[in-house]
Amino acid sequence: MVEVKYKRVLLKLSGEVFGGKQKYGIDPQVLQVIAKEIKKVKKYKVDVAVVAGGGNIFRGLAGSASGMDRATGDYMGMLATVINALALQDSLENEGVITRTQSAISMQAIAEPYIRRRAIRHLEKKRAVIFAGGTGNPYMTTDTAAALRAIEIGADVLLMAKNKVDGIYDSDPLKNPKAKKFDYLTHREALNLHLDVMDITAFSLCQDNRLPIIIFDLRGQQSIERAISGEHVGTFVTTEKKK
What we know:
Shape: globular
CATH class: Alpha Beta
Mean pLDDT: 90
Radius of gyration: 17 Å
CATH topology: Carbamate kinase
Low-confidence stretches: none
Distance between the termini: 29 Å
Largest sheet: 9 strands, mixed
């Protein structure tokens, strides 16, 4: 049995992860892989919460760039995260994982409202919890929502799962084949790099609350399982500089 380093984790899944190889929509095969990975991790008695992105369906910033009101676009993006959350919930339950979805935007017919104490109680009962609807506020990314929820539920680590990037680089590795990958960074160093891998507000929240972050490629073999066991995957970001 794998010896786990973290007892409670928050997994952030970007919208691109849900899309898989598709440019738009949800890839059922990717959902199945994620669900199986989460089921495997839960066998080690690890509490798992998930924040769903929505970029595979709609991005508020993209809508704003085309002339849409930014707040309206962001609310549409929040609705996209709910679609992804429900799809993941279905896949998890097909794997036998009891799951609850909570939304920061009230829609009681399909999801519970986000209530911190209720979410923690679900985790204590060994249910997976999916957080949808971002923070419920426009102008906030789902990265920020992930950092906020991780802190609220007392997660030991924030797992940032990416679709094509296996960590933090000094430039975009998809455009620059000579980009340098960082194995370890402090929150401050990551903030100073001003890279697009994660929202600045999210990095700041994690720094202020000393929450470690692991940024990794979800497509890596057993990547979530390896991350929770303490094995090095991707880039590890923490408050203290690694000696």
